[in-house]
Amino acid sequence: MRNVFYSFHYANDAVRASQVRHMGVITGNEPCSDNNWEAVKRGGDLAIQRWIDKEMVGRTCLVVLVGSQTCGRKWIDYEIKHAWNNNKGVVAVKIHQLKNFSGLQSTEGGNPFAGFNLTNGTSLSRVAKVYNPPYYDSKDVYKYIHDNLPKWIEEAIAIRKAY
């Protein structure tokens, strides 16, 4: 099992992300408790950056869990850039069709790798993969992610090694 760092928009997608993080097919970063996260945030941007950097040590891949408002968020962008620049695989999985506690699905978000360019000028969105489960039913989406996530992570790691 790979050890990955999950990146997601907490306010909108914590419940959906939790479903993926607790599938048991990948070892992932443990969630920071609300109290600890508030303490980190009070430390300002540098404290958040240090927390992210520390949490990414020993990870082999960044998995961006994409909801409706994931793209373009400051810290998700930082995590993508940090992971790629530190030779970690990067992959994104759209989770908008998983249900939250209220039983609601969300709208599809964009490609979180758009806007990033590699040193050779190639757009990261042309290199890193974004997977969008081809189902509408939340249970089917869950199963699809469960069955494919390890393969997607291995592919992301191989892609990163090729660059």
UniProtKB/TrEMBL annotation:
Pfam families assigned to the protein according to its UniProt record, in alphabetical order: ThsB_TIR
Superkingdom in the source lineage: Bacteria
InterPro entries: ThsB__TIR-like_domain, ThsB_TIR-like_sf
Domain Thoeris protein ThsB TIR-like: 5-99
Protein name listed in UniProt: TIR domain-containing protein
Organism, scientific name: Deinococcus antarcticus
Species classification: Bacteria, Thermotogati, Deinococcota, Deinococci, Deinococcales
